[in-house]
Amino acid sequence: METSEKKIAVVSGGAGGIGAAVVSRLAQGGFVPVILDRDESLGREVLARLGLQEGQGAFLLVDVTKKPQVHGAFERVRAEFRRIDVLVNLAGGTLHAKLIQDFPLKEWREVIDANLKSTFLCCQAVFPIMKTQRSGSIINTASNYGVTGSATRTAYSAAKAGIIAFTKSIAAELAPYGVRANVIAPGRTATQRVMGQYDAETWAAKGREIPMGRAAEPAEIAEGVAFLAGDDSGYMTGQTLHVNGGMVMP
Amino acid sequence: MKRLEGRVAIITGSGQGIGKAIALGMAREGAAVVIAEIGEANGLQVKSDVEGLGGKASAIPTDVSREDSVNAMVEQSIKEFGRVDILVNNAGIYPVSPIEEMAEELWDRVIGTNLTGTFLCSKAVVPAFLKQRAGRIINIASGRALQGAVEGAHYAASKAGIIGFTKALALEVAPYGVTVNAICPGVTDTAQPRGHRTEEELYAMAAKIPLGRIGQTEDLVGPAIFLASDAARFVTGQMVIVNGGAIMW
């Protein structure tokens, strides 16, 4: 198949725990995954593990909080692959968890930029491409904390709530062009980064607090992303899909 | 690979409209389907449509508002197919009525079919689901549950009730690996809105929907199959809102 006929999926934060699972799932679904990430060795490892050769996947070293880098990256993807069918914005994370009185403004900005601004910049960069195609599906990543809030995670919760409202807004803007935008909201997910914060016993106890008795596997989040990326959700836009084992039911 | 191979799915109210589309869609994905439908002729027609696709189907005349009818339907489904894995509570009615004219009998009928029917069918399959430690319940709610409906107070109440019921049941059965979710369609091109809306009104509605059209029954099939499939095994107690962006929740 010619490169230009293949469906292209850009995944920001594609080298991370959920990111790798999403890249794998989208590749399995026939997409050519393009990873945007700050961690080059991890990102290339994700592609290598999937056995993707040149043209079947790509890695671009990008700090998605920097506008010139983001716009440059999307230009390169357009030049090489001619189209972008799916954009998954996964970059981000809690980064800093502190009580409000101890939360430095610098760290607040880091959290907002890593999660919310990166989502804005990537959506802005992909917009002209998807608009011209008159098709596309954007999946932004929130969190159950974007709905419930979380003590010590003020910045992260604000950023994630911001992503939900931002997504609704662009969904309305993009709809006339046949482009959809939805949110995936993972609950607690068993990535190495998250599990590394707990000892085994605490992790198991945290799992029991969830109605389904455990944290999500990254692959289960990836299935939700694949649903929102594909035609099965063709009449959905501006919505949030929570994959959290019943942890939060907004 | 078919996503529902070997599964048995009961779809209520599947003689027409959204339920019929879901039944055909699930059959295409390999499920044996039970057409639990009050209208016998419609039910038999869908059964023959499914068989025409090479699928397995049974049409069981069912009044979801009556416990004996529901229990007999579930019993017969298990007898015919040996098991049940998926329940789609789709049967519903929407007889429009301004509140001041809304007879108690009409209120009871709407709540009885839409909400009590969902309860009765769920209750009837849950023992089997808990025993096999697997099962999927998909309740068809509505955007009206979120934003209300003029001349549809009974309907909005019944659909909001379905959402509360979905969350409560999801909590109850989660330890068994059983999931319960709701799909909220927007205005969908079926006999229901066409019964009380003119073509012009439907066009006007479509113009206000971000994706530029009202829903087709086929739009609900992908989300229903997703929720019924292994892919959604960690999704429970949630609303999947399929309305072209008409309401963003």
Catalogue the unreliable spans of chain B.
none
How many independent structural domains of chain B? Answer: 1
Quote the beta fraction of chain A: 15-25%
The CATH superfamily of chain A is NAD(P)-binding Rossmann-like Domain
What gyration radius of chain A follows from the Cα positions, in whole Å? 17 Å
Intertermini distance of chain B: 33 Å
**String of helices and strands of chain B:** EHEHEHEHEHHEHHHE
Determine Rg of chain B (CA atoms, Å).
17 Å
Structural summary, described in words:
The complex is a heterodimer of chains A (250) and B (249). With 250 residues, chain A is of the alpha/beta class. Chain A has one domain (3-243): Rossmann fold (3-Layer(aba) Sandwich). Chain A is built from 9 helices and 7 strands, in the order E-H-E-H-E-H-E-H-E-H-H-E-H-H-H-E. A 7-stranded parallel β-sheet of chain A has the order 3-2-1-4-5-6-7, with helices on both faces. In chain A, helix 1 (17-28) links the parallel strand 1 and strand 2. In chain A, helix 4 (105-133) packs parallel to helix 6. The longest helix of chain A has 29 residues, at 105-133. The termini of chain A are far apart. With 249 residues, chain B is of the alpha/beta class. Chain B has a single domain, classed as Rossmann fold (3-Layer(aba) Sandwich), CATH 3.40.50.720. In chain B, 47% of the residues lie in helices and 15% in strands. Chain B has 9 helices and 7 strands. Chain B has helices spanning 17-28, 40-52, 67-81, 104-132, 144-147, 153-173, 191-196, 199-208, 221-228; strands at 8-12, 32-37, 57-61, 86-89, 135-140, 178-185, 239-242. Chain B has a 7-stranded parallel β-sheet with strand order 3-2-1-4-5-6-7, sandwiched between helices. In chain B, helix 4 (104-132) links the parallel strand 4 and strand 5 (135-140). In chain B, helix 3 runs parallel beside helix 4 and helix 4 (104-132) packs parallel to helix 6. The model of chain B has no long low-confidence stretch (mean pLDDT 97). Chain A binds chain B through residues 168, 171-172, 175-176, 178, 180, 211-213, 216-217, 220, 223-224, 226-227, 230-246, 249, and chain B through 167, 170-171, 174-175, 177, 210-212, 215-216, 219, 221-223, 225-226, 231-238, 240-245, 248-249.
